[in-house]
Amino acid sequence: MWSSFAYHEPSTAQLLILASWVYLLNLLGWISQHLLSAQLLGQILIGIIFGTPVAGWLDQSWEEAFVAIGYVGLLLIVFEGGLSSSFANVVSLLPLSTCIALTGILLSIALSFVLIPLASFSTLHAFAAGAALSSTSLGTSLSVLNPASVGFDLRETKLGTALLSAAVMDDVVAFVLASILTTLGEDDSSSQDLIGKSVGRTIGVTIALGIVVVPLTRFVLKPSYGRLQSGIRWKEAVWGGEPLLVGLMACSFIGMVAAAGYAGTSPLYGAYIAGLACAYLNDTWKVTSHLEGLGESGHTLDQNTHNLGLRRLNTYPGNSRLGTTSSNSIQPLSSGGLLSEQHIVTPTLRSAFERYLTPLLTYLFVPIFFGSIGYCIPFVPLWQGRIIWRGIIYASLMLLGKAACGLWLLFWPKGKSQSAKGCSRDEKELGSWKGAVFLGSAMVARGEIGLLISQIAYNTPRALLTEDEFLIVNWGIILCTIIGPLSVGWIVRRFGKSVMDGGWD
User: Whose CB among 39, 92, 100, 167 lies 3.0–4.6 Å from 136's, allowing a Cys bridge?
Assistant: First the structure.
C-alpha cells in the first residue's frame, strides 16, 4: 500500500508564531546592527526567547528543521566568503593565515588548563573545554566582514583574506577535535585506538581536496567557463544568463560539500573551496563589452540593468542607496538618453550570486542560523553564582587567547607592494596596530562551532564535561560571541578603512 505524509493545515497559533519568528529575527537583527554594529546579537536573543530556553513556542521538530536550514545558510555564507575573496591573496597569505589559526587554537587550549585549579576540572575535561573554545565562528567572522556590517568590503583585502582563511582552518581543526572527543567519550576503551586513524583521515582528505581542486579548476573548469563567457547567445537566452550561472555554482557547491562530508572532513571546508574555485573563474574571465550608442547596441538603460548584481550592503532595511558605489554601477545617461561609451559588465558568477542568493541569505538563512544558535544556549541554568564568576574569568582568558592572533600583523614581514605609499613610518605602524586589533577582535567569537563541540563533550556516553563544567564553558562561548562582534563594530566606527593601512588593503 502506498503511503504519503498527511497534509494538515497549520493552526492559527502556529502561523502566528512562525510569521513573528521570521519577522522579529530580521527586525531585531536590523536594530542591533544599527545600535551595536552586530546584527547577530538581536537574532540570537530572539532565538533564546522563542525557543526551548525561555518561552518554548517552537516545537522540537521546528527547532531541528531550523538548525538544518540554518546550517545550509552557514554553508552558503562560507561559499559567499570564498567567492568574494581574492584567490591570489589566499595563496600568498597562506603562511600568515596558518600562523594566526595555530596561535588561536594552541593558546585557547593551553589557557583552558587554568580551569584545573579554578574549577577543579580534570586534565581531560580541561582539554575538552579548550577544544570547544579553540574554534572561531565562521558565521560570525563572515558577518563582520560583510559590507552591511562594516560599510565597506573587506573580503577581497589582505586583512579580510587572512581572517577568513584562518577561520576556515580553525573549523577544520575543530572538526578533528570533535572526532577526538567523540572517540574519547566512548565507553569502549578499544575505540580510542581509532583516534590516530580519524585524525589522519581528516588531515589527509583536507589536503587532498585542496590539491585536487587546483588542477580541476585550472585545466577543466577554466576553459569551459571561458568558452561560455566568450559566447553571446547564452547571455540573452531564456535558459541562460545569471540563472545558468547560479546552476553552475550550485553544482560546484553541492559537489564539494558532498565530497568533503563523505570523505571525512568539514563540509564548511568544501563550501569554502568551492567558493574559491568560483572566485578564480570569475577573476580570470571578466568579459566587458563596449557600447557606443543605440545604433550599435540596441539597448537602453532599463534593458541593461539585468546585468547588475545586488550588493549585500544594500539589502538591509533602510540601507538602500540607489545608484551608488559599486563596480557594477551604471554611468550617467548621455544627452540623448542613451548609454554611450561605457563598460557594461556581463553576467558573472558574483553578480549572479548577489542577485539571486544574497536576498535569501540576508532575510532568511542568516537570521534563522543565528536564531537557531540562540535556542541551543542553556540560558536559564547559566545564572548560578558559582557558575557566573568562573565563567567570566574563563571567558576573559579565552578573549586573550584569540585576541593574540592579531599580533602577527605587527611582526609579519611586508614586501614593497604591501607598503603604504606616501605614509610615514609612524603612520604605517599605527595602521598595522589598527589592523591587529581588528583581526584579534574578529577572531574572538566562538558561536556555533564552540556550542557544537561543547555539546559533544557533554553528551558522550562517558561525559567529558559535567553539568557545571558545561555551563562554565558555555559562559566562555557566549561572552566571546557577544564581545567579539561588539569590539569589531566599535573599531570600525572609530577607525573606518584605516584598519587596512600599513599594506593590508
Answer: 167
Domains detected in the chain: 13-287+351-500 (1.20.1530.20)
End-to-end CA distance of the chain: 64
What span, in angstroms and rounded, lies between the C-alpha atoms of 61 and 456? Answer: 20
User: 3-class DSSP state for residue 7?
Assistant: coil
Cα atoms in the Cβ-side hemisphere of radius 13 Å centred on 432: 20
Owner of C-alpha cell 593551553: 110
- Cβ contact 311:349 at 8 Å: no
What type of residue is 162?
A
Determine if the pTM surpasses 0.85.
no
Structural contact between residues 74 and 268, judged by C-beta atoms closer than 8 angstroms: yes
pLDDT band at 1 (very low <50, low <70, confident <90, very high): low
Mean pLDDT of 335-346: 44
Whether the pLDDT of residue 251 is over 80: the answer is yes
Across 249-258, b (16+ Cβ under 10 Å) vs e yields beebbeebbe
Average pLDDT over residues 410-419: 62
Q: Which residue has the cell 555551563?
A: 471
- Average per-residue pLDDT for the chain: 81
Eight-state DSSP code of residue 93 = T
Phi, psi of 85 (to 5 degrees): -85, 165
How do 342-345 and 288-291 pair as beta strands?
A: antiparallel
pLDDT reported for residue 39: 87
Residue 341 has pLDDT above 50, yes or no: no
Return d(Cα 312, Cα 451) in angstroms, integer: 28
CA angle 490–391–185, rounded 5-degree value: 120
Q: Look up residue 20 and give its three cell numbers.
A: 513573528
Grid cell 571578466 is found at 286
What gap in Å lies between CA 306 and CA 26, rounded to an integer? 27
